[in-house]
Amino acid sequence: MFATLYLMVPDSIVGARPGSVVDAFFFSFETLATVGYGVMSPGSIYGHVVATAEIICGMGFTAILTGLTFVRFSKPKAKVMYADRAVITNYNGKPTLMVRMGNARIGPLGDAVARLNALLAERTEEGQTYRHTHDLKLRMARLPVFSLTWTIMHTIDDHSPLHGATPEWLAERNVILFLTFEARDPALAATVHDVHQYGPADIICGHRYADAVVTEPDGRVVANLGRISMVEPDA
């Protein structure tokens, strides 16, 4: 664009071949980058005005690009793994919705907080269908130290929005689960956030998570994140 502006008025660039698009382009690029090799320079007031505008644009572009790059790479990431599917299984004799998470960081996260919401379609007495979001009550919504794995549990009792849930019931109401996660990264002294969702096809009944925490021969307890999505039938 700036090269075209230089070419619109002859003799705007000293040292450039008359009408040369290549020379105008490279002079424009060198000006935009504030390099200035000294071979070509503005040759008139018009050329100086266009070069000044281009230098301002180049400096602004550099500042914006630097800021975007810094934000992109300096933003702390949660680095949390989620099971591919949520399960509904029995826990202490009661049907319970479970979602398993795993800490993929080298170090633990502190003061972890989880919230689980269910978006489902409900039909009113007038026959109209609305979609409402329900906050699902969790057995343990806060974890002081999140080091290995964490299984989020919601007991499906008479007061639960998911009471009577079956695969057909979940599909009919198009249930979508939203799991929000927040924790403190002690290494960066920053708070990390993450959101994960499950559709009705991602919620299976009659299955439970297989154990993903193992004990090494030296006695260390570690989480095998390769097993975080493994499930087994619930007898």
Radius of gyration in whole Å, from Cα? Answer: 30 Å
Distance between the termini: 70 Å
Q: What is the molecular shape?
A: elongated
Identify the CATH class of the largest domain.
Mainly Beta
Which spans of ≥5 residues are poorly predicted at pLDDT below 50? none
Main beta sheet: 5 strands, mixed
| CATH architectural category of the largest domain | Sandwich
Question: What average pLDDT do the residues reach?
Answer: 89
What's the total helix number? 4
Q: What is the strand and helix layout of this fold?
A:
Elements: H1 2-8, E1 13-14, H2 21-32, E2 41-42, H3 45-74, E3 80-82, E4 86-91, E5 94-103, E6 109-123, E7 129-136, E8 142-146, E9 149-155, H4 167-172, E10 176-185, E11 190-198, E12 203-205, E13 207-209, E14 213-215, E15 221-223, E16 231-233
Parallel strand pairs: 4-12
Antiparallel strand pairs: 1-2, 3-5, 4-5, 5-9, 6-7, 6-8, 6-10, 10-11, 13-16, 14-15
Helix pairs in contact: 1-2
Can you tell me about this structure?
The protein has 235 residues and is of the alpha+beta class. The chain has two domains: 73 residues, Helix Hairpins (Orthogonal Bundle), CATH 1.10.287; 154 residues, Immunoglobulin-like (Sandwich). The protein is 23% helix and 39% strand. The protein has four helices and 16 strands. The longest helix has 30 residues.
